[in-house]
Amino acid sequence: MPQSHRGERIVLASNNAGKVREINQLLTEQKIQVIPQKEFDIPEAEETGLTFVENAILKARHACSLSGLPTIADDSGLEVDALKGAPGIYSARFAGPGCDDQDNNRKLLEALKDVPEQERTARFQCVMVYMSHAEDPTPIICQGTWEGRILQLPQGDSGFGYDPLFLVPDEQCSSAELSPERKNQLSHRGQTLRKLLTALS
């Protein structure tokens, strides 16, 4: 990575503690200081887009304009084939306003209760955007996908979101049973951030 990005302060346009932790772990070795937007009292942007790309750009532009610093934003979610791609961009609020991870997981299991094992295919999608300033006309946009299946019951207590329900076929365990290091090697967010770092350099 070139000198210009080493030691750089970049705002992370997220108040999700799990995301902040994962992205920080991935960027530590790059000597990039990632500052969560809440340290600037930046409220969450309104996610009015209809795609992961639109929402990531909305979040990045919002944090850039209020902090005056370069920003990374991600929009990610779970696509379940039996639900025609739902919850998708609504993954974090699948069970409704004010819901938590457990509410979302319960709703997902309920929606899939009659779906047989072989039809429970799903994937995590992540789109990450880097904007150097709020009017940046050419944001860097990267995407990663992580294929898996939805389990019948939660397994593991690591990770966050839908991790306890997401079977990683090659590992024969849920995403919530992986070590943070292994998850970062495999996950949609890890893949996307590595692409972004390559693009930045």
The counted number of beta strands is 7
- Poorly predicted parts: none
Element-by-element helix/strand order: EHEHEHEEEEHH
Total DSSP helices? 5
Question: What would you call the structural class?
Answer: alpha/beta
**How far apart lie the N and C ends?**
5 Å
Q: Report Rg.
A: 17 Å
The overall average pLDDT, rounded, is 92
Beta-strand level of the residues, as a percent range?
15-25%
Biggest sheet overview: 7 strands, mixed
Record the strand order, biggest sheet. Answer: 2-1-3-4-5-6-7
Shape: globular
Helix content: 25-40%
Secondary structure layout plus pairing:
Layout: E1 9-12, H1 17-27, E2 33-36, H2 52-67, E3 71-80, H3 101-111, E4 121-131, E5 140-150, E6 166-168, E7 173-174, H4 180-186, H5 188-200
Parallel strand pairs: 1-2, 1-3
Antiparallel strand pairs: 3-4, 4-5, 5-6, 6-7
Helix pairs in contact: 1-5, 4-5
Could you explain the architecture of this structure?
The chain is of the alpha/beta class and 201 residues long. It has 5 helices and 7 strands. It starts with 8 loop residues before the first strand and ends with a helix. Helix 1 crosses helix 5. A hairpin with a 4-residue loop joins strand 6 and strand 7. The mean pLDDT is 92. The protein has a 7-stranded mixed beta sheet.
